[in-house]
Amino acid sequence: MEYLGGCFCGAVRYKARQIFDAGYCHCSICRRISGAAAVCWFSVREEDFELTLGDPSALRSSEHFTRYFCRACGTHVHGMDDLPVPPSVGSRLVSAMLGTLDDPSAVMPALHQWWSSRVPWYEEALALPRFDTGLIPHPAKRPRRTDRW
Ligand SMILES: [Zn+2]
Ligand SMILES: [Zn+2]
C-alpha cells in the first residue's frame, strides 16, 4: 500500500510505504511548531519514504531531531532524528505529520506520546459541543462549557 501526501500548497510531495508506527505527540516542541494543542504523526523506515517533489527547508528543532517544512507555505511535513538506529528497527525512521496525508483516514494513531506534557484540558475538550462546519453560534448563545477563559 502506498501513502501519498504533501504540504498545503503542493510544492512538497512524498510517497510512503509500510507504516511502522503512528500516534499523537503532546510535546511542547510539536505544539509550538504546529500551533496546535497536539499533533498526529506516523513513521516509516527511511527506505520506505520518498520525497517526490520539492526541496523543503530544514529546521533543527532539538539536539537530535531535524524537521523539514515547505518554504512556500510553511507546512511541516516530516522529520528525522540522528540517534543510533535501534537494532529492533533496523533503519532510521522518518516521522511525518499525519495531517499531510492525502487520505489521513488511512492511518489511525495507536498511542499518545509525551502525555505528561499534554495541555491539561485535552481529555475534557473531547466532550465539547460539535458543529459540522465552521458556522458556529456566538459564544454568548452557547451553553457555557468551560470556566477557563
Ligand atoms: Zn507548500
Ligand atoms: Zn512532539
Your description of this structure?
With 149 residues, the chain is mainly beta. The protein has a single domain (2-119), classed as Metal Binding Protein, Guanine Nucleotide Exchange Factor, Chain A (Beta Complex). It is built from 2 helices and 10 strands, in the order E-E-E-H-E-E-E-E-E-E-E-H. It has helices at residues 28-34, 122-125; strands spanning 2-6, 13-17, 21-25, 39-45, 49-53, 57-62, 65-69, 76-81, 93-97, 112-113. The strands form 2 sheets. The protein has a 7-stranded mixed beta sheet, covered by helices on one side. Strand 7 and strand 8 (76-81) form a beta hairpin. The chain is globular. The relative contact order is 0.23. Bound molecules: zinc ion (ZN) (2 copies). One zinc ion binds at residues 25, 27, 29-30, 114.
